[in-house]
Amino acid sequence: MSLVYRFKANQPNFTHVLQDFVGEVLPFAKRVNNPLLVAPMVLLKSIEWSIYRWHKTPIRRFYGIKSNELLYMITNACNDRCPKCGIWERPEPKSQHLMIGHFINCLKRLHHNLYQVTLTGGEPLLFKRDIVLIAEEARKLGVPMVTVTNARLLDEAFLTRYKELGHVLVISIDSVERSKWNEFRGTPSFDIVMPKILLAKKMLGDQLRIQSVLSKESEQEIPKVAEWCRQQGLQHNVQLYQDFGAYNWSNAITQKEMVDDGTPCAARKNICIYPNGDVVKCFDHRRIPLAKEPLGNIAKQDIIEILCTKRSTEVSKIMKTCNFPCKHMSCNKPQALLFR
Amino acid sequence: MSILVIPCFIRAQSDLDCLHRLLDSVRGQSKPFEKVYLVDDASPLKYEVGRHAVEHLVLDKNGGPACARNIAISRALQDKAEHILFTDHDCILDTDWNAEMTAFLSRTEFAAVGGMTYSWGKTLLDYYHDINGTLAGKWLLPDRKELWYMPSLNFGMKAFAAEQFPFDERFPSAAGEDVDLCLRLRSKYKIGFCPTAKLWHDYGYKSTITGFARFVRLFKKYKSSSATLYEGHTVLMWDSSESIYEGNNHEPRLQV
Lengths: 340, 256
Known about the structure:
With 340 residues, chain A is α/β, with parallel strands linked by helices. Chain A has helices at 7-10, 14-29, 35-54, 100-110, 128-141, 156-165, 178-185, 190-204, 222-232, 255-260, 303-307, 310-320, 335-338, and strands spanning 68-73, 114-120, 145-149, 168-172, 208-214, 235-240, 270-273, 278-280, 296-297.
């Protein structure tokens, strides 16, 4: 990913102010039942909006609470070849991979504000030693951690340490039948992974969760996965399919249905880090023109400094009303709401 | 056992009239409070509460509403209160407010509760606050199953939550200290919403025209406190929320 920023594209401008204004005022205007009152109410709303935007006030510094999620895509590389996912097709060169110390520093800087740190990929367990380091630091800082994996590289030593640290492991499964499994994974991994899932269940107990992706291709399989999880006593979550560059699977429900269902997006609570240390507010940030380029890089800047930039604030404001289908992803919800 | 806490700073006769109107509504509750603490934050105007059965604590030094509420919370905890409810002197409680708030706290797992707040006045500015949900709290998105925040004028906590999460006395005025409390409280507990616990808030607008300057001052004050909160809670304020108003106060997905 390029770190050469285009100056103009990264500067909030009048259109972003306008977008923020419209995002605030339009939903408000819909609340006014009497058509004669729409104009005066919108005028008052505009005054309120202007005060919040431009009125300068002295600031005092207090402390933070835990309400943000830090998501680290630790690598693009993967040992599976799932047709639903295009991330594994673009593994980062070794020279661009973030040194683990930078992420640990970022975690330390933010931990007062984090309710969770989530490690994803690619396949995170390709960097097993780093995962354990992060898990240990997260434990020290009192931040719950979730690692999302395909389970191929799970082993007893890792599971023992992970269990001790008390974090949650999420294994991605879209089928429990050998042929479909191998088709969905793009590798004949069923016989390798299934025993490891059962081992993880035995060793992690309630710290193990299962997650499935619902698409047209997997919709016949998901109920079987759910039933298998029920029999195994495992918590299960279904996430709607989102395209991350593979274009091989298709949504089980239309994009319009996904957008129009009234679910708001809460993802601006998220702080997302790419394998090279680039910071974005959402892994689907390219949908928002102002957010296309990363906000900064934690190998070069302090994370708080990055998050306090004007562009970061503007991107967050836009995310409040961006309403894209990606709002159905798990990152829009805290873990407590995901797994039942 | 429910105890009501009212912090007040009485500057003028109009404030005193508001206070008496509130205390009348307190006396008219279908389920009476076991105790009412009226904490006077070193008001410049001296007054008596007369016929009203309240514990009138008068502070020597002005410390802000957060400090006043904390003093009453300590007393309420000593009194073994089960539920501690909060309102302001310029509010008017619905007859069933205490009954609804305490019933909600008793029957649910929520550690705190907010009720539905309406404007008392009839100006366009009051109407604006009603549809804007200025003081009606905010849903936590995306699920609208709990509150992101509820102003302290229509708020209640279970005793254990009040004990663990006092108001932050570094907030010098009545703005932001309730948001701060809710944000900290939510790191451990959930805040529920009880739409049937109604009260009215008097913004003090005499008319739309003459009240306009007051309207602007109000939002300047809130902006001032929100700047403090933005800084203090760093990235927290990007958590998504939505103001509550009459059109979304009975959310079908609300779980109690």
